[in-house]
Amino acid sequence: MIFSNQYDAIVIGAGIGGLTCGTLLAKNGLKVLIIEKNHNPGGCITAVKRNNFVFDMGAHLIGSCNDTGILGKILRELEIGVKFIRLNPSDRFHFRGEVIEVPQSLEEYIKKLKRMFTDESSNIDKFFEEVIRIFRNFSKYEIVEKYGSFTYLQFLDHYFKNNKLKGILSAQSLYIGVPPSKASLLSMVLMLVSYLRDGVFYPINGTQSLPDKMLGRFNELSGDFLCNTKVVKIIISGDKACGVITESGITYFSKIIISNIDAKITLLDLVDNKNLSIKFINRLKRMKNSISCFILYLGLKNIMAKHINKISGWYHDSFDIDKCYMKSFYIFVPTLCAKSLASKNAHIIDLLMPFPYKSEAYQYWDNKKWKEVKLRLAKKAISILEKVMQHKLRDNICYSDAATPRTIERFTANSTGS
Q: Is the pTM here over 0.85, yes or no?
């Protein structure tokens, strides 16, 4: 395929954000090029096929896919048809044997919490009213001015005294990669409303079907997609970005350059530092990444339904998420939503657990060291699963693989695999 070297807009990275942006611009008549360093689109929402199993490499669940949700509205506007299944319950929290299921409806969840914590009933109403208000006015200056520096834990402490209630409302904070004391309130509001009000969804044909459908629509609108291509430089002329240079030395020009990749890589690696102030560069360098994770992927055969039907969800050792989050883990069984991901009588189980990838400590590890860590953590994760399932998996495992923070960093280019 022959590509032009002049575009109205160039998008770096074909994650969901890049695909959305590029497709919207193409629909509005712009000549758009999306450049992706991997073979497939999707970024954190992508999948690979191994031994007749299709594994989600990153994100598993997607919020706001209903008609009134943010993503649902975008897909409808772009005329992209993706079939989803809505999870019921929306989520499940396991606190040392106590299981709390989150209903599909936010109203029902609020009622459930008020029944559990009668002395906090009025504060529960006030809490969710303010969460919805922040969401609806998210871009207004008054919201950013008031809550821009708030952590989620500070917000919880303002409304509640009951630590168990705060723990339940914090159980999902690791979806954004940090415990409540470090989580931005505004980021948590986006996630909470997306999941609790608008619903939690899984694509019926697996997560890869979402970016594939989006790319298909982008191509229908005459957009150009360049895969297996890494951008190494953003060209600056005067005070404006005007083009990009790829690893192979090819230059593409555009009046608009949009980066859908890591902010530090974009501004510290792709943009020449002479175009940025020292103050801004230092601020970027001080930014802290969310923690990374280790992910175990298992393909299982002849597993009984009773062992997997209700194991999905977050597992926490206590209601103090800040103290226990490094021991927390998340389990998901995608084949309960999409049977096409595995052959008959087979299932997939994914287990995710936090892994603090500090580049200064791990940058000297060679491949042998990472393989040793990967094997050790895989054994640990399988042991955790066997305990949860109360079932030995040795005879059921027909495929096993894992991703470390370095895998995630290499695949997504997110700094430290965050």
A: yes
